[in-house]
Automatic annotation (TrEMBL):
InterPro entries reported in the protein's UniProt record: GT87
Any one GO molecular function term: hexosyltransferase activity
Protein's organism: Geomonas terrae
Similarity comment: family membership: Belongs to the glycosyltransferase 87 family.
Entry protein name: DUF2029 domain-containing protein
Transmembrane residue ranges: 21-39, 114-133, 140-158, 191-214, 220-247, 297-317, 329-357, 369-389, 409-432
Keyword list, A-Z: Cell membrane, Membrane, Transferase, Transmembrane, Transmembrane helix
Pfam families cross-referenced by the UniProt entry: GT87 (PF09594)
Domain of life: Bacteria
A GO CC term assigned to this protein in UniProt: plasma membrane
Length: 454
C-alpha cells in the first residue's frame, strides 16, 4: 500500500490509447446494470416502501388543503387507501417548500409520480455531472457527462437515493449550481441556489456561515431572502401555523426518533451512543447499550462534536480561501453532511463534490503516495452499502436475537456503522492537504519541487 501512489501514476502514464474507451464501456455496462436493478423497485412489492411516499403525501395534502404534517398513516389512508406495507408512523420530515415543489407530482397517481420523479432524478444526476465538470474547469463533452452519470448510479449513495426516491440528487444539483455561480463571481445567483438548497433540506446551512466568514454578503443576503421567500409562499399556501409547526415541533420530533439509529453517522449521534445507547423507536436496526450509562449527559454533550467540527471546518476554510474557492466550499459540504442531526447513507451523494475535487488534485499533483493511499481508503469506505454494515453488525451480535427487528450487539460493534463518518473526515483532510500543497506549489513555482509526505 505504501507505493500505491507511484503504481497508480505509472498505470495512468503508461495507459494505452484504447484503455480509456474500454474503461468507459465497463462503466457504462455497470451503470446500465444498476439502472436495470433500479427499475425492479417499481414493482408493487417495493414501490410503497420508498421514502418518496412522504413527498407524495405532503404534495397531496398541499393540493387538498389537508394538514400536511398529520401523521403519515392518516394521509396514506386518505390518499392511497389500504396498503399492504406499513408507512412511517410520524409526520413527514420534509420542509414546507418540498410540498410546493412536489405539488405537480401530486396530480398524478402514486405509481406515475414515482416513475416521473425517477426520470427527474436521472436528469439531475446528468446535470450534476455536467456542472461538476464545469466547476472543475474540465470539458463537459456528452461522452464524459454520460460516463460520469453511469459511474454515479453505480455508487451506493446514489443508488440508494434513486431507490428510495429521496431528495439528495436535487440537493446535489442545487449545491453544484451554488458552487459554479459563486466561483464565477455571480453572488446573487449563488445565494439563490444555496437558499433553494436549504429550503429543500436544511443541512447546507453551514455554507452560509462560510460565505459570511469570507464576507460575501451579497450571497448571504440572497440565500437568506430565498429561504424566507420559499417559506413565506408556503405559509400563504398551507398556512403559517403548519410552517411554524414544522420548524418548532415536527422537525425536532422526527430527528429525535432517528438520532439514535445505528445507521445515523451524524456527529450529533456520538454523545447519544456513548451515554444513552444505540436504538431508534421508529425503525429496525441494531441495538446496543451505552459505553457509560448516563442519559442525562447525552443531550447537553450532543452539541460538543458538531460545534467543534463546525469551528474546525470554518477555520480550515478561511485558511485556504485565498488560494481558491473550491477547497473551502468542499470542506463545508463535508461539514454540512456530518453536522446534520440525522445523516443517512444517501446523504453521501453530496460527498461527490469533495471527492471530485480530491480526484482532480491527485491527478494534478501526480498521485503523491500518502494522499493517494488515503483517497483509496476513503473511496473504499464510501462504497460500502449500509446493508453490508448492518449485516456485519448483526452477525456479531447476540445469537439469541438474530433475525429480530433490533438485534442486540456489544457497544464496540456499533462503531462499524461510523465508517461513513470516517470516510468523510478523511475526505476533509485530503481536501485541506492537497489544497495547501497546490497553493504552496504555485508560490514555489520556479524555485524547485515541494513534496507531500510519503
Amino acid at each position: 500500500m505504501a507505493e500505491s501512489g507511484h503504481v497508480i501514476k505509472r498505470i495512468v502514464v503508461s495507459m494505452p490509447s484504447f484503455a480509456k474507451p474500454v474503461l468507459a464501456t465497463l462503466i457504462a455496462v455497470c451503470g446500465t446494470l444498476s439502472l436495470w436493478r433500479l427499475v425492479q423497485y417499481f414493482t408493487p412489492e417495493y414501490i410503497y416502501q420508498r421514502d418518496f411516499i412522504q413527498e407524495y403525501l405532503l404534495a397531496k395534502a398541499v393540493l387538498t388543503g389537508t394538514d400536511p404534517y398529520a401523521p403519515l398513516p392518516e394521509l396514506a389512508k386518505r390518499f392511497l387507501g389500504p396498503l399492504t406495507t406499513a408507512v412511517f408512523q410520524h409526520p413527514t420530515p420534509h420542509p414546507p417548500a418540498v410540498g410546493l415543489l412536489f405539488s405537480p407530482l401530486g396530480l398524478l397517481s402514486y405509481q406515475h409520480a414515482v416513475q416521473t420523479w425517477f426520470v427527474i432524478q436521472l436528469a439531475l444526476v446528468a446535470a450534476s455531472a455536467y456542472g461538476m465538470l464545469r466547476c472543475l474547469e474540465l470539458r463537459p463533452t456528452p461522452f464524459v457527462v454520460l460516463t460520469c452519470s453511469f459511474l454515479a448510479v453505480t455508487w451506493s449513495p446514489f443508488f440508494q437515493d434513486l431507490v428510495l426516491g429521496q431528495l439528495m440528487t436535487l440537493k446535489l444539483a442545487l449545491l453544484i449550481g451554488t458552487w459554479y455561480m459563486l466561483k464565477t463571481g455571480r453572488e446573487a445567483g449563488g445565494g439563490l441556489f444555496l437558499g433553494a438548497a436549504i429550503a429543500v433540506k436544511f443541512i447546507a446551512w453551514p455554507l452560509v456561515l462560510l460565505l459570511a466568514v469570507l464576507r460575501r454578503w451579497k450571497a448571504v443576503v440572497a440565500a437568506g431572502l430565498t429561504v424566507l421567500a420559499a417559506n413565506g409562499v408556503a405559509a400563504m399556501v398551507i398556512g403559517s401555523d403548519a410552517v411554524i409547526a414544522y420548524y418548532t415541533k415536527v422537525g425536532p420530533l422526527v430527528s429525535s426518533l432517528y438520532r439514535g439509529h445505528a445507521s445515523n453517522f451524524s456527529v450529533w449521534s456520538i454523545a447519544g451512543r456513548l451515554f444513552a445507547g444505540t436504538d431508534s423507536p421508529a425503525m429496525c436496526g441494531v441495538k446496543a447499550a451505552p459505553l457509560w450509562s448516563a442519559p442525562e449527559l447525552a443531550g447537553p454533550l450532543a452539541f460538543v462534536a458538531p460545534v467543534v467540527l463546525l469551528g474546525a471546518g470554518l477555520f480550515a476554510s478561511a485558511r485556504v480561501s485565498k488560494s481558491s474557492f473550491d477547497a473551502p466550499f468542499a470542506l463545508m459540504v463535508c461539514v454540512s453532511i456530518l453536522i446534520s442531526p440525522v445523516a443517512w447513507n444517501c446523504y453521501l451523494v453530496l460527498a461527490a463534490i469533495p471527492a471530485a475535487l480530491v480526484a482532480k488534485r491527485l491527478v494534478e499533483q501526480q498521485f503523491p503516495v500518502v494522499p493517494t493511499n488515503a483517497a483509496i481508503m476513503a473511496g473504499a469506505l464510501l462504497m460500502v452499502p449500509p446493508t453490508t454494515l448492518n449485516r456485519l453488525m448483526s452477525g456479531m451480535g447476540d445469537p439469541a436475537s438474530a433475525g429480530a427487528c433490533r438485534p442486540l450487539v456489544p457497544f464496540p460493534v456499533t462503531t462499524i456503522s461510523l465508517v461513513p463518518l470516517v470516510a468523510v473526515l478523511v475526505l476533509m483532510w485530503l481536501v485541506w492537504t492537497l489544497e495547501v500543497f497546490s497553493a504552496g506549489s504555485r508560490v514555489e513555482d520556479g524555485r524547485g519541487t515541494k513534496g507531500l509526505p510519503g
